[in-house]
């Protein structure tokens, strides 16, 4: 419909310019014709010019009036008769005046109406001509012969113009139908490609098996190229994924068995350009590429497209598409293939996130198991032993009362002291499990309370140098993590380092970075030696320390040496910019 309207508008514009040219020629002819009435002719031509301007305004404004062609034909015919009349009966003026309505009707309504309009105008003009000099024409009818010849020529011209116009309309209709067919095919192709992309998105959201997504993606790529006909069956498609820094073929279409075992480093050629540039690359003669030439199946291909499988800084691999025809991939195909590659990347990200979730779940289970073991050890080494000692002393006192009642009082005093000590140990364990002071007064107060309890329960000298304003800038999650880091580190120093003093410092290192330092004057250890054999030691102390540091996006540093004590420094970012600096 839009094309038809556009074609009609172009016809109207053409007729408008033809009208102006006709009026200009008629005006010149009337001006030089001595028989013309210049004043009357000027009025008629002026009205014709205003009429033409009104028509062009209607045409360019986009108005569509179904009766407009008929009204124009009538008006043009009237103006043709009037112009012929004011010209004094000039045959030249008559020919030009009749030409426009005849041509316009031929182009608009067909040659039959065009001939009828020409005959009607000719008859009216004959009547006007005779009316000018009725007596002369009654005496000599041969005077009408030139006029009749001109009218006959116009009738023949009207017929020819009408036939040509009909032929042009027929061709325009055929062209419109052909363009509509092309549009329908294009729309169908776009709908099909949208469905393919939608299917890929649905598959990605429905499965975490990215290898299944790979196979489905290659099938969809074949469907994308279906509009190329039988040529699509010759397209080679390959999915390659990085494994330990080397590209391995995961799945492919139309590769040989030997090609499936090919590994590439993506260090040169098209693959290096794709991976380093992060954009699709279209190249010719893949058989000359330093790496792609390792594929036997690509040696007969004349074009290759490589698309990166990456998201941000994560490079997963590349997809390779090749074909023996040099002009096989056009812009639409490239965009759709890139869209499918993006869905593959999403599938790989989902799988990677899922794997991380599984690993995190396993880590949490390990941490919980280690926490249970630690709690069991602490209970066994502390309150459990004390309760067992209390039971033994109570039994001893019961027997002592039967034999030496006076000595029982001293033993009861010792039993009371042991019970108090056990109570302190249990309270200390409850404090470390959930330090309420941390929730109410913050990290600095909780650290000081921890130091007091270590001195009271274990006679361990813990010196706290904590700036309360630093902890106030941290959220409760960060404060909790740092507290448990200090609690575990101080406990390890007391048990294993034989430290006389332990210093805990909390201060600002930069305007948006806090520093937590735990230092002791114990026996120290060889950090490299311990870390190299840590996995076989059956303890998760260092692992917990590092993982808890990661929970606050911190940076961990351990300085120690045999006989020189240990210093642990944790830098904690307090802003997003600080996090980026520490991660960088």
Describe this structure in words.
The protein has 584 residues and is α+β, with helices and mostly antiparallel strands. The protein has 18 helices and eleven strands. The strands form two sheets. Strands 3-2-1-6-5-4 form a six-stranded antiparallel β-sheet, with helices on both faces. A five-stranded mixed β-sheet has the order 7-8-9-11-10. α4 packs parallel to α7 (145-206) and α15 runs antiparallel to α17. Residues 1-7 have low confidence and may be disordered.
Give a quick summary of the entry.
The chain has 18 helices and 11 strands. It has 584 residues and is of the alpha+beta class.
Features:
five-stranded mixed β-sheet, disordered N terminus, alpha+beta, single chain, elongated
What letter string, H or E per element, gives the SSE order?
HHHHHHHHEEEHEEEHHHHEHHEEHHEEH
Number of helices: 18
Structure summary, number of beta strands: 11
Overall average residue pLDDT: 76
Strand order of the largest sheet: 3-2-1-6-5-4
**Terminal-residue CA separation:** 60 Å
Oligomeric form of this entry?
Answer: single chain
What percent of residues adopt helix (DSSP H or I)? 55-70%
| Shape summary | elongated
Poorly predicted runs are 1-7
- Sheet-strand content, in percent, reads 5-15%
Q: What class, by secondary structure content? A: alpha+beta
Rounded radius of gyration (Å): 49 Å
Largest sheet: 6 strands, antiparallel
